[in-house]
Amino acid sequence: MSVPEPHVPESSKGLARAATAATAEILLAVFAFVAGLALLLMIPGLQSAISWLLDATFGRPLLGPEQVRQVHGIVLTPLAVLGAALIYGWLGRRLDLGGPPRPPPWPPVGLAATLGQVALHVVLAVAGSYLVALVMHALGVPVNEQRLVLELTASGDLRRPEVATLALSALVLAPVGEELFFRGQLLRRTWQRGGARAAYLGSALLFAAFHGNLQGFVVYVWLGLVFAHVYARTGRLGAAIAVHFGNNALTMAMLLLADRA
């Protein structure tokens, strides 16, 4: 006599499938980032080339050892993310996790609507981050910016090469690389296989963890959700890049102006 299997509601099965798909995509994304970083570090003479470029751009004297380490970090990390996005896309197309991909329900909207969504989501990103920081402070868990960013903007001197390099990383490399990786790959692929909730949550949590700032984790989760939402509303990854740029530009400007004041 066979024992009947316990009945599992369809909603529970759907949640399990979504969780499995999200977990698989997150693991694939982590592997792609590690591979991207490893391949980047294997390029002969890359760090020497960065040092030469800084010297050629800003002139002598050269930066001190600690400053060189900081500059390399803020340049190499977004470059590794950009490489990881390419690796992730290549691996994903061949592994086809969770079955064949379905096109996400994000039909691209017109230019005027996209610009309106970008402006709205820049406000949401900056104002929401500020409100989240206020709430966390009231709860006794203050939010702090990344230590390296605070160090590089401490003097408020826009002529310092470290600040110029930070601007290149925060305003160009990070918005492009991180949006290609976290939204263009992770969010889209998880949405196709696990649904909207798994995609929003998985991409936002990994985006926050990637920045390695425990005191700012909740803020980065919020930003990840905002960047994902503008991509879904417009169907244009360029909109997410633009909002990411706007948020970083306003944040960096406020840090520099606050320190100069």
List the helices and strands and how they pair.
Elements: H1 10-41, H2 46-58, H3 65-95, H4 111-138, H5 147-152, H6 161-194, H7 196-210, H8 217-234, H9 237-260
Unreliable spans: none
Helix content: over 70%
Q: How many domain regions?
A: 1
Count of helical regions: 9
Radius of gyration: 21 Å
- What amount of the residues lies in strands? under 5%
State the total count of DSSP E strands. Answer: 0
Nearest-integer average pLDDT: 82
Instruction: Identify the overall geometry.
Output: globular
Give the gist of this structure:
This protein is 77% helix and 0% strand. The protein is mainly α. It has one domain.
Detailed description of the structure:
The chain is mainly α. It has one domain. Helix content is 77%, strand content 0%. The chain is built from 9 helices and no strands. The protein has helices at residues 10-41, 46-58, 65-95, 111-138, 147-152, 161-194, 196-210, 217-234, 237-260. It is globular and about 55 Å long.
What are its keywords?
single chain, 261 residues, mainly alpha, 9 helices, globular
